[in-house]
Specification:
It is found in: Membrane. The chain is mostly helical. About 65% of the residues lie in helices and about 0% in strands. It has one domain. The protein contains seven helices and no strands. The mean pLDDT is about 85.
Length: about 150
C-alpha cells in the first residue's frame, strides 16, 4: 500500500467510529425505557430542565449528523460537524449548569473538541458552496461562435 492510503483509511475509520457513537446516542434518546447509560432520556431531560420531547430533537440531530459523517464529502461532513458542535455546546453547558460529575459529563466536552477539529478540517473554501448543488468536476467548455 502506498503512504497515502493509510491516513485516508484511518480518517475514514474515525468518521465511521464517531458516526456509530452518535447513532447509538440517537437511538438511546428515542428508546422509551432505561438505557445502558442509566435512566431513560425522557427522565434525564426533565431533570436537566428541558421538556421530555426535546430528546427527540437532539436524537434526530445526532442521527442525521451520524449519517452525514459517513458520506465522503467535505460539505456533508462539515455540516454534520457544525451541527454536532451546536448540540454538544448545549450538552456541555447543561452538564456545567446542573453540576454533573466528571464521570457523567466527560464525553460531551471531548466530542465537542473533536467535532470542532473536524469542522475546521472540512471548512469550505467558499461559503456559497454549502448552498449550491454539487457539480461535476469538469465544467462544460464554452464553444466559440463565429
Amino acid at each position: 500500500m502506498t503512504a497515502r492510503v493509510w491516513p485516508r483509511r484511518l480518517t475514514t475509520g474515525l468518521y465511521w467510529l464517531l458516526a456509530f457513537e452518535f447513532a447509538v446516542g440517537a437511538i438511546t434518546k428515542f428508546a422509551p425505557g432505561e438505557t445502558f447509560f442509566g435512566p431513560p432520556y425522557s427522565v434525564k431531560f426533565v431533570d436537566w430542565g428541558y421538556p421530555s420531547w426535546m430528546r427527540f430533537v437532539v436524537g434526530a440531530l445526532e442521527g442525521l449528523s451520524a449519517i452525514l459523517l459517513v458520506i465522503p464529502s467535505r460539505r456533508t461532513r462539515f455540516l454534520a460537524a457544525t451541527t454536532l458542535v451546536f448540540v454538544l455546546t448545549g450538552a456541555v453547558t447543561t452538564h456545567i449548569v446542573n453540576h454533573d460529575g466528571l464521570s457523567d459529563s466527560l464525553a460531551a466536552p471531548v466530542h465537542l473538541v473533536v467535532m470542532g477539529i473536524l469542522a475546521l478540517a472540512n471548512w469550505p473554501a467558499d461559503w456559497r458552496n454549502l448552498l449550491r448543488a454539487p457539480t461535476s468536476a469538469r465544467a462544460p467548455q464554452p464553444t466559440p461562435s463565429n
